[in-house]
Write a structure and sequence with these properties.
- The protein is mainly α.
- It has one domain.
- It has 6 helices and no strands.
- Helix 1 runs antiparallel to helix 6, helix 2 runs parallel beside helix 6 and helix 3 packs antiparallel against helix 6.
- The chain is globular, with a radius of gyration of 20 Å.
- The two termini are about 25 Å apart.
- The mean pLDDT is about 90.
Length: about 180
C-alpha cells in the first residue's frame, strides 16, 4: 500500500507542478489581454473586441486549474481538519467522506463532458464545444471546454493521493517544488 501511495503522490505532485505552470501562463495571458484592452480603449479609442474574449477564456483556465491546485494544497473549504496524529480509523472515515462528496459532485460533470443524453457522445459537452466557435475570432470552443475534464481528473488524482497517503508515509500536502 505504501508503494501505491508513493506512486499516486508522485503523480499528484507532478500534475500539480504542471498545472501551476499552465495556470501561471494563463494568468500572464489574461493580464496581457486586459492591459492591451485598456491601452487600446483609452489610448487609441479603438479596443479590439477579441482581447476581452481572450481574457475571459484565460480566466476560465486559471479558475479551474486554480481550483485543482487549491484542492491539492488543502485550501478548499472543509467542515473540520483532521490532525495527522488522529487515529487511522478516523482519518480513513474522513477521507472516505471527503472522497465521496468530491465524487458525487464531480463525477456527473466529468460524465457529461464525454456523454450526452442517451449515452450519445455527439451530444456531449466536449463534442458540442468542438463545433462551436468563439464570437470574435475563429477558434473552436473546445480549447476552453477542455479545461473542465482536465481539472476534474486532476482533482480525482489529488484526492486518490490524499486518501492513499493515510496508509503510506507520504504527506498529502507535500509541495511539488
Amino acid at each position: 500500500m505504501k508503494c501505491l501511495a508513493r506512486i499516486f503522490m508522485t503523480a499528484s505532485n507532478g500534475v500539480d507542478l504542471v498545472l501551476r505552470w499552465v495556470a501561471g501562463v494563463f494568468v500572464v495571458i489574461m493580464v496581457a489581454m486586459i492591459c492591451l484592452q485598456v491601452a487600446a480603449r483609452y489610448g487609441f479609442s479603438s479596443p479590439p473586441a477579441w482581447t476581452e474574449e481572450a481574457a475571459r477564456y484565460a480566466m476560465v483556465w486559471v479558475g479551474l486549474l486554480g481550483a485543482s491546485i487549491s484542492f491539492k494544497a488543502g485550501f478548499d473549504p472543509a467542515l473540520m481538519r483532521m490532525s495527522p496524529r488522529s487515529a487511522t480509523t478516523v482519518r480513513v472515515l474522513t477521507a472516505l467522506v471527503r472522497a465521496s462528496s468530491v465524487m458525487i459532485f464531480l463525477a456527473p460533470v466529468l460524465w457529461y463532458c464525454f456523454f450526452g443524453p442517451g449515452m450519445n457522445t455527439a451530444r456531449s459537452f466536449l463534442a458540442r464545444s468542438l463545433v462551436t466557435t468563439a464570437e470574435t475570432f475563429d477558434m473552436p470552443s473546445i480549447f476552453v471546454a477542455a479545461s473542465v475534464p482536465i481539472f476534474i481528473v486532476a482533482i480525482f488524482l489529488h484526492g486518490a493521493a490524499k486518501c492513499l497517503s493515510i496508509f503510506g508515509d507520504e504527506q498529502p500536502h507535500k509541495e511539488a517544488h
